[in-house]
């Protein structure tokens, strides 16, 4: 997976910057993976047990690896999907909470910077006129196609209404705020985990 350089202080993360165990200690074939941005990471949720990944783990009765990256783009989920496939990682299933389609990554001198509404306006010129959203639409489709081709169960949702045209999947709702007052809280995380779980069960029944 991509090494995260913009770490968020106050959270327990592994040496790669993810809110989960060290990757070398994970039995990837015996677990599930959840990807996304700050909602997936659990920004604003201090208790690791209240994140989407942990709520989903209780329902699935299996470990769920949290690959959420705060402020990340759809493209980052695409990059990490390629990383997993190249490393022959085949989890029991993959869940994705798609970030805003107007976000994009910048790689400068080997450092990754996730750009979005909080960034310097000069850096956002690349996203104008739907350019970033168009790229991210293809990245989203590619992620779905790759896991499907490998026979790995896949579930995805979106949580930015302004990007609904890119997601082509169901949108979630918000029920509470996190401790920072800006991101979603534990009730919303539990709700999203339940949505993901029910969709996963529905997909398995339809196979």
Please work out how many helical segments DSSP would assign. 6
Structural class: alpha/beta
Radius of gyration: 16 Å
Strand content: 5-15%
Major pleated sheet: 4 strands, parallel
Sequence stretches where pLDDT stays below 50 over 5 or more residues: none
Helical proportion, percent range: 25-40%
Order of helices and strands: EHHEHEEEHEHH
Number of strands: 6
Describe this entry's structure for a reader.
The protein is built from six helices and six strands; from the N terminus they run E-H-H-E-H-E-E-E-H-E-H-H. It is of the alpha/beta class and 207 residues long.
Supply database-style keywords.
globular; 6 helices; alpha/beta; 207 residues; two-stranded antiparallel sheet; 34% helix; four-stranded parallel sheet
Secondary structure elements and pairings:
Layout: E1 32-36, H1 38-41, H2 52-60, E2 64-68, H3 74-86, E3 93-98, E4 104-108, E5 111-115, H4 131-149, E6 154-158, H5 164-167, H6 186-206
Parallel strand pairs: 1-2, 1-3, 3-6
Antiparallel strand pairs: 4-5
Short description:
The protein is an alpha/beta fold. It has six helices and six strands, in the order βααβαβββαβαα.
